[in-house]
Amino acid sequence: MDINIIKQKIEMIPSLLNEFGIDMWLTFVRETDVMKDPAMDMITDRGVTWQTAFIFTAKGEKYLILGSLDKDNMLASTLYSDEEIKTYVGSIRDELKSTIEKIAPKSIAINKSADDIMSDGLTCGMYETLCEILKDTPYIERFVPADPIISALRSRKTSVEIEKIQKAVDITEEIYDKITKNICAGMTENDVANIVRNETKDRGLTSAWDSAHCPGIFAGAESAEAHAAPSDRVIEKGMVVHADFGVKFEGYCSDLQRTWYIMKDDETDAPDIVKRAFLALDDSIQSSFKAIKPGVEGRLIDQISRDRLKAHGFEEYPHALGHQVGRSTHDGAALLCPEWERYGQRPYMKLEEGQVFTLEPRITLKEYGAVTMEEMIKITADGAVFLSRPQRELYLIKR
Amino acid sequence: MDINIIKQKIEMIPSLLNEFGIDMWLTFVRETDVMKDPAMDMITDRGVTWQTAFIFTAKGEKYLILGSLDKDNMLASTLYSDEEIKTYVGSIRDELKSTIEKIAPKSIAINKSADDIMSDGLTCGMYETLCEILKDTPYIERFVPADPIISALRSRKTSVEIEKIQKAVDITEEIYDKITKNICAGMTENDVANIVRNETKDRGLTSAWDSAHCPGIFAGAESAEAHAAPSDRVIEKGMVVHADFGVKFEGYCSDLQRTWYIMKDDETDAPDIVKRAFLALDDSIQSSFKAIKPGVEGRLIDQISRDRLKAHGFEEYPHALGHQVGRSTHDGAALLCPEWERYGQRPYMKLEEGQVFTLEPRITLKEYGAVTMEEMIKITADGAVFLSRPQRELYLIKR
Question: Which of A330, B270, B336, B391 could share a disulfide with B274, CB 3.0–4.6 Å?
Fold first, then answer.
């Protein structure tokens, strides 16, 4: 965890509060070892035990109210000064209430969002406690969702953040090259997964998400399609194999997918349908990539990708075209996704410079399994650039 | 993660629902890699990406409704059968609503608790989504808190769970013995911490809580008192040193504290005040231990401990006497704690057979730092037994 990045994020907060017309932002948490509000990533490198309030104002003030025994740990992180930290023993009530009354905010952003889990760290029980503490004040009526602030903090990557993500991408590609050199018929999904696990471990890194299904290795039509652990299924000639993984480099993630075809003894190329699917995906990725720029709604980019697949005679994929990547693999609110209810308001959010997205359409072939590539791009002032080297050719394996 | 333990927990659910008079229990989650409802520990060994509903009924039915691409991973865990799993692509709405309407429960327990974080995994945004989906039904009015169910699942330890905790305790004591053999003036807090880190790693285990402050090593009066990372502060003769750590063994935690006194060259014993503090703590632990049995409220046990310290002329500690331990270091709702507002209803919960608690009073001596022992006990049918070998003598170090 790079403390300087968190310092930069904290410094961004007053201007974000002003940009969104919000007077005060409150992150209200406890026992973050057990369940951590994702917003904590942006404002501290430490955990807390008892009820704790992180308060930021549009005027640039910071307040941190926490249980007495958590203080020394927080002080040691140097993000909050002795004057900014208040402690309590019996109850957070008085200190929290009086601090809010002193600030007298017209609006208080709280971490509540139906659409974006990164902005939804406030639990029902903590919300109830907060309302109880503020019950005789006008402040409950002034709650607004913190998602614009949290989303901007996560999305608007600093150059140091982009460097770390780029490094995670580069390493992931190195490991993919290793797979391409070694994959062959007779290996199991787990054998391929072990290449990834060993290469990741040798570099002192960890998987970008739950190591139970990162890497995911999917061999042939009988394999699970996504989000599943590698199995002892044997890779056979005539199978499409795809992999999905990323690494975490200094707190920042990558997330890429690649596809191979394992040729039969009498083949010199992949079957026609596999080649057609690959080309359709390539077209889908390149076409949507070209349309990405700040100000466009994510749903429009997703639609381009879907339209291209349909133009090639294939079905739509049952998920979003792309998600943001950062400290988490699924990061930030804006999505490149269709207007499906499960995505709430996320398809309608406008893209911004500094955001990092995946592009990951997929075609499932009944006979062969899923053909899929996942690339990563960064949005620039007037377009986008690839952070990954896109897979433009199907990897043909003859061994 | 031992799948058989989760199986046993899932099998307990219908009888718990009947015991507490609740028709249905709903755990409603998403993106559990980012923020995981702690109740998930009791009902699955896998994570999910999209909105997911785990539903259990008093009649013994199970339903799992999830995004289509999460299905294979969940099926592979074998805890839910193909018939019990329903998937969706666009929205969970229809499947969730119709499932609840089919069950037609008179009460629906949801994971919302002001007092117990383990029972408070439902976020505000997910609650809002749930209410929106059920808006034209009578079911929102039938929500009740799931804390009795979750608390019982976590608290009522099976014999296999107790074995794992006992093993974690035994290993922690082995490591403490190593510290006692090696600690000396001139070592830093980090040197002592490295003994713990290496011994834990050599056994292929991890720390019981955040490795940033597990172990905690606290040397002398200037040291942080708790919840802080070890520093490069040098241990000097004439200092009280205490340590706080635990290990995780097959998913189950220990949490113990021990205290040493580093004698000056001309000393053959600890200073009188340090000895008195140690004896007061020992009395406090033994006295409260003797009063523990099922049916007693935790606050009464905590009070005995406080009273003993006061009888010896010392001040009360600024925290609870003891917390439950299990898959997390701070586990289960019932606490041995004072009636302070920050503890909500937890001091009033009755103790039950099978619960595992710490006993950890503390005395802070201005000149020397904190003297503290933390033991672990298990509640039996008519009392309690120690899982740890209590520290009954101050460790005197002359080197």
Answer: B270
